[in-house]
Design goal:
The complex is a heterodimer of chains A (about 160) and B (about 650). Chain A is of the alpha+beta class and about 160 residues long. Chain A contains 5 helices and 9 strands; from the N terminus they run βαβββαββαββαβα. The radius of gyration of chain A is 17 Å and the shape is globular. Chain B folds into 3 domains: about 200 residues, Aldehyde ferredoxin oxidoreductase, N-terminal domain (Aldehyde Ferredoxin Oxidoreductase,  A, domain 1, 4-Layer Sandwich), CATH 3.60.9; about 190 residues, Aldehyde Ferredoxin Oxidoreductase Protein, subunit A, domain 2 (Orthogonal Bundle), CATH 1.10.569.10; about 200 residues, Aldehyde Ferredoxin Oxidoreductase Protein, subunit A, domain 3 (Orthogonal Bundle), CATH 1.10.599. The chains are: A alpha+beta (about 160), B alpha+beta (about 650). Chains A and B meet through helix 1, strand 2 and helix 4 of A and helix 3, strand 13, helix 7 and strand 16 of B.
Amino acid sequence: MNKALVINPEKCTGCHSCEMICSLTHDNECSLNLSRIGIMKTGGGGSNENIPMVCQQCHDPFCADACVTGAISRNEQTGALVVKEDMCVGCKTCIIACPLGGVLYHSIKDCSMKCDLCNGDPQCVKTCLYGALEYLSMDEWGRKKRLKGAENLVRLFDVIYK
Amino acid sequence: MKIGGYAGQILIIDLTKETVKQEPLDLEMARKFLGGFGLNCKFAWDLLDPGVDPYSPDNVIFMGMGPMIGTAAPVSSKHSVMSKWPSTGTISPGTAGGDFGLNVKLAGYDEVIIKGKAKKPVYIKISGDQVEICDASDLWGKDNYVTTDRLWEKHGRNYAVLSVGTAGERLVNTTICLVDKYTSWGKAGLPAIMGSKNLKALIAYGNKSIHVVDPERLVKRASMILERFRKHPDYQKLVDLGTMDGFSGWADIHGMSINNWSGRFPTEEAYRIYGTDYYLENIKAGRCADPTCPIGCKDHVKIRKGEYAGTDAWVSSFYGRVVHMAARCQVGSYEKAVKAQEYFQLTGLCIHSYTALIDWAVELYERGILTKEDTGGVELKHDFETTMYLSEQANKHEGLGGILSQGFKKAMKDIGRGCEKYAVQVKGMEPLYDPRINRLSGPEFNQVVNPRGAHAPQGCITLYMSKDLAAEAYRPWLEDRGVPPEALSRIFPRPGYFNIARMTPYGEDWVGFINTVGMGCLRGRVDNFFRGEDWAEIYSAVTGFEVSLEDLKKAARRNYDLYKALNVRLGFSRKDDVFPDRWFEPLKTSDRGTMVLCDYFKTPLTRKDCEKLLDDYYDERGWDIKTGIPTEKTLADEGLEDVAKDLKKRGFIK
């Protein structure tokens, strides 16, 4: 089972480090628009208001299904859905099809772009010291989510039984 | 070769003529006058009439973004603004983090120059090549939060918003702009200058990119730096507490004077009311960070319970603001401290500046210099009610609060009656640190010599180091930042001692430098994770111009001397670098006995000793000891021959 790029919005401070490193390592440019991951700031930008949005590498992907030229295919080693730039005709159907905004348009190369998990070594995760981004196996992720749920219950018990 | 780091354009906006012009950046000039601060100094020197009235349409706002902003370099966020400030009359910089600089840079501009005066309220919208002057009639009269929310609603949350609160519209000087509600920019009256230009806000969205010449080299160095953060034992604490990490330093070591520099805030009370446990449990709501900063220092705070439950505020340097509300205003509770902060943020009143004026006014009232006739029948006390009363008056620019809100320089004249004797200020700006409590280290000394006024962040090197370290502990930092051996022998003339006046210039240059390339400083704390060579490496990797630490240091000193020269041309000299009288009075504290002004090594200092330190400081900087003005030789050595010629022609250099 492949690892997943996990987002923890409650830890995101909106610092844009992931966007800068993503565009840099893919395009030698730093840019919010060329980044495959995007911090969506909502409200005042405080707690739980900065949401990192990135492709979730669907098991049954809308983007690949929608692609008429077959330009989006899975890298079996990493599980990432990757755009073959020379096959992409720029019809943008994949962008329309993705419900999460996981696919964007590369304005310089004139083709679709999306997270490719940096060949199994996502740079955004390395640069996020806040822990808002993690690269975890499904087991690890599940365990972490459960643990967090348990901690929430403990806090709830504290309130109820105090 | 495609240039790296620099966006390559300057944006010039004339509000009178309603014109917008994009001009190419002169790269040679940008390299000589390094970074946002350097370019601002150069443009101010060339374009700003020294005698200009700060409120005149001819006053100019210079905004410099710095070559590292908009790249993946760690902590590359600080953008710098320069203008002639209404509260002090100096031409000096202010820095901010937040997303504004990032977006202006990614929109394609290294520098934004704003002049003139709009006929009616406007805001400027920057979106890549599209720059528009838009109607702001429906925003005029609205506070910072409403203004920001409305602009986000209209143009999208992706825009960074630099806004003027209600006080700035009424030309209140002790004000500050907000970026995206939380970061502050332009202490000493940027909002008032913008208000005088009928300019309510700037919004920016960066849809372009910044090229990096050697990405691999940048990523390698950035990873090394991030690793230092990650491995630091206090890393998580810094993230959790933000600037409140400085709390114990304040409560235990540094302390903060109270009752207008006549006492010290008691340690026990600081812990009882403002402790970090209470902050984490009842006040903190979230953490925000400036671009690429791994230890965000901006706070989203929310009061959970009591009378003010539900109060939301976004603030930068939260700790400093709590301290001011706690010590200068003595509001009495955490909730009241946050409630008052919320009001300051909404109106754009500057917490650093205006709380000092409140503190002063209360003493004037207690001494009978101010009476109920002046206050509108209200008794002035160090409490929440007085703070809010005077702040509301300041926001409306009326009554006593309105007089105070113009800053020390004008308020001392308007009140008269010998009030200046009790005003603790340098060049019209309030100091932050009390050298009787802190002893005279870098920040305390810098408050006296900073051309901006008593502004502390420069000369930061000794701030976050324990006051109990041996003298030699400071040597590695100086060596790492490239201070030459001959200077080190002057700074450390004998074992177990350093001369703070000779050390401070290197701290000032360094902070000036890191802010100018775009690095957030959070004073000493962030800098502690960096090495001097990091910046030469990062600058070279990003821009493709191979530089050494030595080159960068030279550029930093050139910037600082040009900054000084800008103010020399206004008539500032040694006569303005004055240690406030009150610092020479003993400070009676309730829990630490009596404290007097002394050096780092606890040797008491008289005014004469301090004058000697000023001699040393000017000498170390290559400035004339008698006048405190850079000498012709110093300026010429830095390639500022034209500046020297101008100062000579005007009679400032003999």
